[in-house]
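Rotation project, supervised by the postdoc (A.L.). Task for the rotation student: set up a whole-complex structure prediction and record inputs and outputs verbatim in this book. Inputs entered:
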Amino acid sequence: MKFKSFLILIASLFALVGGILAVTAIGGGNVEHAFAFWGEHLIIAAIWLMLSLSLNLINGCCGLFSLGHQGFWMIGAYAAAATVKYLPPGGDQNWLGFILSFPIAVVAAAAFGLLVGIPCLRLSGDYLAIATLAFSEILRNLVENSEPLGKSLGLSPPNVIRNATTKNWNYAIYLVLAWAGAALTMLVLRNLMRSSHGRAIQAIRDDERAAELLGVNLTFYKVFVFVTGAAFAGLAGALFANFNAFVSIGHFSFNQGVMLVVMVVLGGMGDMGGTTAATIVLYFVGNVFLKWLPSINVPVFYDPTQGGVVWTEIRNLWQVFFSVLLIVVVLVRPEGLLKGIDLTALFKRRAPADGK
Amino acid sequence: MILVFGFMMMHGCGESGGANQALIGANLELTGSEASWGKDSQQGIELARDEINARPDQKIKLKFIFEDDKSDPGASKDAMKKLVTQDGVLAVIGAVGSSRTIPAADVATDEKVPLMTHAATNVTIVKRSEYVSRICFNDDVQGGAMAHFARATLKADSAVMIVGNGDPYSEGLCASFKRVFEAQGGKITEQLAYQKGAQDFKTQITSLKQLNPPVVWVPGYFNQVGPLIRQAREAGFQAPFLGADGWDDPQLFTLAGPAIKGNYFSNHFNPYGTDATTVGFVKKFEARFGTRPGAMAALAYDAAYAMADAVNRAKELKPEAIKNAINTIKDLKGVCGTITMGPDREVTKDVLILETGEDKYLFKELIKAADTK
Amino acid sequence: MIDFFTFLLIGLTVGCIYALIAVGYTMVYGIIKLINFAHGEFYMVGAFVGYYVLVLGFGAQIGGRELGLIPLLVATLAAGVATGVLAVIVERLVYRPLRKSGRIVALLAALGVSLFLQNAGQQTVGAKDRPFPNTMTLQRYPRFKLVAGDVKAGEVARRDISVVYSVPLEGGRLTLVENLAQRGNTISAESVEKLDEILRNAAREGVPAAIYAYPAVTVSNKDGIILIALALITLLLYLLVQHSRFGRAMRAVSHDFEAAELMGINVDRVIAGTFFIGAFVAGIGGTLGGGMYYSKLSPLMGLMFGLKAFVAAVIGGIGSIPGALVGGLALGIAEALVYGYVSFLYADAFTFGILILMLLVKPSGLMGKPSSDKL
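Outputs recorded:
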């Protein structure tokens, strides 16, 4: 997708939220709470976007089916958290730690990208998927048992920005940082895919044997894709660790990984615009709109051992719906639901309603 | 579309409660692996809330908003944030599991809204800031009490510990048990472990038989301790198992079968107790919900009363004032003992040691707080 | 040394359960080159079907009478059939349309099915753990009969001693085992008192009670059932694959899909049949393993077991049925030995480590044929 449309997307999101805040203010609601609420979600959404775009590079553009992306995210997050927490001088305003946490996270994640990528060179398709999943789970197990990494309690590094400013400035600054990160990811990856390297990467996806015969260095590009994808996931991890001020292995579970894969699949493998749209839609629906669903109970099952009809709230069915969505998309439109969507057009249509 | 969102936000944020309503949040495990504890807690709170609001002298009515942390730390943080920033509550009760309460405590500290946990026992939780308090005894106290019990009453001079790997609750309790047990002259022969979600404990039990300790310390959750004890007895292992409040759930009996009898665990409350307070509470609870309350229900009930006490004494209905009132709670009689908030925002309570009978708990001993060091 | 044999036995039984699940993975992979991610969930569905058959069909109650072998058999077969049917439906609806679409797409679909079954399970049967109905009380063998006089307080027990007795219950009886002494420990006075009381009650009610001593290494009746089940299934699979027309068709399709089609084999039917058989076996594994053996059911129980069974299938050589059986047993035993002698903490890392090792070093597994497909 065009970078310009991406920027328009960001601008629209911000405008949308700004509008909500304005309406809240006029209506006499608590603007600060609203800002915190939406700010947090926008920041986390940006982090997810970085993750899905970087996974898109590996899975979608290069056709290497990785199920372990959450592992790279975890490495970056823990590396950043450990840096901010332990790097001397330490303390609540560890600016050195904060600044260094980003490059350290990126390098650490990239290193693991190398570690995972090289052995996986010889694997294809489903074997690669399982191997990457296995790597990610091994990492989780190791981190879970590591004393300096907090074991099961996780790490709570200080949020340096928060400690140096106020709550509201904290959100504002991270909004800028997170979306700058997302924009950077988008820019770099888009330029990469438009270059000759990008063509080589896509050639690998389309037909590996043919690409090899045409002189594409499979080894180099496969490893490169893993390392790059991992690096951006690491960057996302650094943002997450610093903003959330808490990382634990529960954050990086296989379920999260699956969510990322679904975002890439729904958006169309290799289509950055589609992936972006899918990520934003899925994130907000799953984390925001779902909670606003009225508390309606629906019957789902009949079970004498549970006393008859089993009811559940509609919002609990999201996960079930989600899995069905995945199946349906794969069956009906494997190129993804949102592939090729021109977001610029989408937002142009909306402009009048924005009141701009 | 913007108007719709804005409207919803306003609606959410505006409800900080009128002049005579106090909005309190509850961040509980309503779904997920520990859902029975969350549901128990919710029922305890609801029972208390209705009693409190029916009191003629209760000018400020309590209204509770329940959020589900799905038995997951990440979701707990989200739930806490929603309660605090979107719903604008004055204070929050919860969560049950320590791994869920820790991130909630971080949010409470950040947003300056008091969090009172009724059941999370990990010692680091309340150390985070003055906004986090606890009304039950913590893992240092529990672990110490059981260690004391093992040495003094069961006369065990050694023990084997089985820790739930990756579970801060289990790990914390193993640390405190070991400390006190060894301080009192006992020896921890070995520490075994099981993984979260494990079903097969036979390898651990084989090691256990070979080590042959007089007691085994298994401070885990009922859904794993139950099968573990069952498999141990099936293999012929005889020594008693010791545990902590994580055992407390009716499912302990069904998952362990008849093998469960003759073991001991520490708890905040004995649902089968025979004293007047307990019997009265159990009757009320059963009449309303049709099931016997567990310790979580009783603790949550007490927590709701503690919130009412704080709300009534607070200078104004703002989180900061509520926090100050919570931290100065004194001599509040509850179903699980008397609550007086110490300077470290912990309470001093005696520890109930219960013995598992075939289908209920039997009172074994009450260990005074002073003896748990 | 004694521990070694005990670990071996534990590993063997767990390995049998892995093998039962691995067989399904391997059969499906062998025939359409798909890793059916949802296979672990078939194990789970089997366990729940068995559960419901026993509870609703035979009136099982918690703490109630033992149901016995026949109900267990019925429940197990029902579970197998139901799971098999489910697999056929899934294949028809989801996998068949994707047969020509590439492996990644099919893998994604399998992922979707797996998630669906887990989440639907959580919303319908509930996420709470359930105990499996009691079909038989666990008994250890071999065992030597003792008389009450042999059990004296104050003596050091040379063997594990327990008393096995029945209590009459509504509709039947319940067998209970009370541990009296553990090898190497002193027999306590309380144990002897308990023994006397049990014998007295038994005599009064007219039900059997017997005292047994056990050697250091024992096998239980439940271990036996699982081992026998695996042996039976191995035999049946062998007969099916090597000596039946359907088996020949299966081998043909897995060898060369198009050629088989051209030879007039109804490939769709063969694939559906393969799915059925694989899931049938997994369903049996669910009822006997997750149900009878571990007695703990939950909608997420298939995750870990499924993943490990997959590792087992890879170890043995994916696509090879004997490989799945060997791989399952090998993994089970290896795990038990590592847990027993090395560490419990790095359990998952160990299993996944083996997986990665196999994939990198010998992707065709211990018994598979090297195939250029995998590279």
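Student's summary: The interface with chain A takes residues 34-35, 52, 55-56, 94, 97-98, 101, 103-105, 107-109, 111-116, 119-120, 122-126, 310, 314, 345-349, 352-353, 355-356, 359-360, 363, 374-375 of chain C (CB under 8 Å).
Supervisor addendum: The CA atoms of residues 58 and 346 of chain C lie 41 Å apart.
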